[in-house]
């Protein structure tokens, strides 16, 4: 029997956590919908408050973490051990490594000197087309784990929008959620209250002037074109979305039915 997670159903925010929201209630084919209280998505929990952690613990959430081990170590320094299944994504395209490092370390002045908004958007397209869509084994492992992990579950990375955004888009596609509803959920990560906060090495939120805000906005948002870049990439590599799901991710009818049985009502 599917049960609503106590204290979190219908919630879309935690005090110290960005981009946390429930996926319950999204429509699926045949009149089904994603069950309330079983599936969440989020940014990292490194700045969660004591009340946040109490709510998360009370909810009994299991954490599916798409970050690399070094990201987890850096961001979770103040967080007690979580019930985590880790499926880290390793970058394939190294040309933008400096950019992501500068964001994580709060070196925004460096971004202001080296970037334009157009170059930032191009970097995001590369991220989705090469690093995200080009790593099917990570997302195959994620889906296999999701079929086994104890529910309720929260899927997250650092900002909760790119790796998590693609993982959730794939999952919802398998569950039969319409593409319009998938996109509506995805772009919610662009809302100001959901966006990743740039912090310095001490964890202090970094102030950003108008020029820097213009330059880095493409990096902080979840734009429709980014998700489309990932889909175009898999269609080019695999011939179709269906082939990507079946051959790239190993999605079988049995796995599809199991995920639907676990997550839909």
Write structural notes for this entry.
The model has no long low-confidence stretch (mean pLDDT 87). The protein has a single domain (21-259), classed as Protein-Tyrosine Phosphatase, Chain A. Helices cover 48% and strands 6% of the residues. Strands 1-2-5-3-4 form a five-stranded mixed beta sheet, with helices on one face. The chain contains twelve helices and five strands. The termini are close together. The longest helix is centred in the middle third of the chain and has 16 residues, at 117-132. The chain is globular, with a radius of gyration of 18 Å. It is of the alpha/beta class and 265 residues long.
The CATH architecture can be given as Alpha-Beta Complex
Structural class: alpha/beta
Outline type = globular
Number of strands: 5
- N to C succession of SSEs: EEHEHEHHHHEHHHHHH
Arithmetic mean of pLDDT: 87
Report the biggest beta sheet as strand number plus sense, adding barrel if it closes.
Answer: 5 strands, mixed
**Low confidence ranges:** none
> Cα-atom Rg, whole angstroms?
18 Å
> How many domain regions?
1
Supply the number of helical segments. Answer: 12
CATH fold category name: Protein-Tyrosine Phosphatase, Chain A
> What fraction of residues sit in β-strands?
5-15%
N-to-C span: 10 Å
Report the top-level CATH class. Answer: Alpha Beta
Strand line-up in the sheet with most strands = 1-2-5-3-4
What share of residues is helical?
40-55%
């Amino acid at each position: 029997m599917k049960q609503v997670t106590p204290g979190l159903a219908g919630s879309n925010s935690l005090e110290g956590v960005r981009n946390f929201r429930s996926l319950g209630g999204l429509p699926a084919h045949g009149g089904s919908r994603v069950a309330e209280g079983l599936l969440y998505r989020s940014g990292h929990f490194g700045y969660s408050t004591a009340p946040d952690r109490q709510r998360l613990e009370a909810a009994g959430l299991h954490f599916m973490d798409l970050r690399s081990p070094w990201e987890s170590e850096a961001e979770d320094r103040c967080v007690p051990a979580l019930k985590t299944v880790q499926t880290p994504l390793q970058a394939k395209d190294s040309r933008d490594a400096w950019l992501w490092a500068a964001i994580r370390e709060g070196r925004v002045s460096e971004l202001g000197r080296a970037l334009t908004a157009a170059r930032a958007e191009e970097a995001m397209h590369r991220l989705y087309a090469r690093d995200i869509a080009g790593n099917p084994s990570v997302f195959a492992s994620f889906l296999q784990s999701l079929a086994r992990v104890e529910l309720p579950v929260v899927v997250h990375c650092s900002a909760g929008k790119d790796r998590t955004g693609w993982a959730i888009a794939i999952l919802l596609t398998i569950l039969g959620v319409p593409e319009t509803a998938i996109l509506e959920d995805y772009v919610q990560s662009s809302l100001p209250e959901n966006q990743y906060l740039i912090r310095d090495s001490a964890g202090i939120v970094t102030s950003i002037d108008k020029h820097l805000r213009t330059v880095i906005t493409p990096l902080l948002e979840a734009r429709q074109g980014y998700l489309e870049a990932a889909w175009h990439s898999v269609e080019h590599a695999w011939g179709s979305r269906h082939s990507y799901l079946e051959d790239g991710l190993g999605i079988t009818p049995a796995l599809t039915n199991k995920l639907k049985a676990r997550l839909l009502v």
